[in-house]
Design goal:
The chain has 115 residues and is mostly helical. The chain has one domain (2-110). The chain has helices spanning 2-11, 17-22, 42-48, 53-67, 76-85, 96-112. α1 packs across α6. The structure holds zinc ion (ZN).
Length: 115
């Protein structure tokens, strides 16, 4: 489930409420996250939603350890790309890191998405 969801996030065909609402899914009456603090889009899900704070903090600690930098210093746009795609955009000479990061993000998607 987590790997499929990660792929769906990458291609922007995912079960987040913003996507489902924009495509008129019958079970989605609005685009707002169930936490009540924003539109459930990829940024909210990956970077902001407080429902996933504990899992996200563990993920950011894990990935920060892998790359040797604190991901919390990255911009949201860069952080989203790192979490979804690994570090190929930043460090193309180190092809193993994206795999480790993808595995870490896989654990986030596996543990947070309810479907
Ligand atoms: Zn939320």
């Amino acid at each position: 489930m987590g790997l499929r969801f990660l792929t769906q996030l990458r291609v922007d065909l995912n079960p987040l409420r913003k996507y489902k609402y924009n495509h008129n899914f019958a079970d989605t009456s609005d685009e707002f996250c169930l936490c009540g603090f924003g539109v459930e889009d990829i940024y909210h899900y990956l970077l902001d939603c407080h429902l996933f704070d504990d899992i996200r903090n563990a993920l950011l600690d894990n990935v920060s350890g892998i790359i040797g930098e604190n991901l919390r210093n990255y911009s949201n746009i860069l952080l989203k790309d790192v979490l979804l795609y690994g570090l190929t955009l930043i460090q193309p000479s180190e092809p193993t890191r994206p795999l480790y990061i993808s595995n870490a993000v896989f654990s986030l998607t596996k543990n947070t998405h309810q479907q």
